[in-house]
Specification:
This protein is mainly alpha-helical and 171 residues long. The chain is built from five helices and two strands. The chain has a single domain, classed as Transmembrane di-heme cytochromes, Chain C (Fumarate Reductase Cytochrome B subunit, Up-down Bundle), CATH 1.20.950.20. Strands 1-2 form a two-stranded antiparallel ribbon. Bound molecules: protoporphyrin IX containing FE (2 copies). The site of one protoporphyrin IX containing FE has 21 residues, from helix 1, helix 4 and helix 5.
Length: 171
Amino acid sequence: MALEDSRERYGAVSRLLHWVTALLVTPQLVSTYMNSWQPGNAFSQVFQPWHATIGFGILGLLMLRVVWLLVQLSNRPPHQGKAVLIGHVSIYLLLLATPLSGILQGYGIRLFDRLVSKGIDTPFTDISQALHGPLAYILTVLVLGHIFMVLLHHGVHQDGTLNRMVGQAKS
Ligand code: HEM
Ligand code: HEM
């Protein structure tokens, strides 16, 4: 598997960044929602103490991803229409805005079980507290829509969309 992207498929670097992000975003959302549904459940207890650490990880991966996207810009699979492009750009923006609003809420921040900030007030504290939850909900809806569309393309249209991100690409 080539490291770089091509017009037919995503390369190993893009795939790694995509799937590690998905692996972090999924428990981040699921554990938080499950915690409000059934406070103290075992799954949430494992992941909730890592909420800020995972959030920082998602933010770091997003930055790497954007750099790699810019390097590969003319060398990756074309978007299948404007709606897909808008959908992907929206997910990128939410992967930036959600962790940023989490950080700027002004609460204490624990990274790898160490308190790295006791919390600071900034001019963005109130707006971040108001927006962090709603941004995460919008991200959830977009990711669910994204997965639904990928599976629809794979199962119904059978146009090889999923194979751009996993396995062999159709050429
Ligand atoms: C993409 C990354 C992140 C996602 C998807 C995410 C998701 C969520 C969700 C769904 C909630 C529950 C909101 C509610 O019930 O209204 C929440 C709460 C919270 N998050 Fe995050 N978060 C992320 C990153 C971060 C980061 C980086 C921090 C801090 C460094 C953080 C700090 C908090 C705090 C303190 C709460 C509880 C207060 C509140 O409800 O607003 N989050 N997060
Ligand atoms: C859970 C969090 C996920 C996030 C945040 C996410 C995000 C993204 C983003 C932003 C892109 C656009 C890549 C680009 O062109 O730069 C993308 C592409 C893609 N994703 Fe995901 N994804 C997630 C989960 C999944 C899952 C579970 C699947 C499979 C069922 C999947 C399959 C794909 C495929 C096949 C593409 C390429 C689509 C195309 O070429 O048009 N993603 N994803």
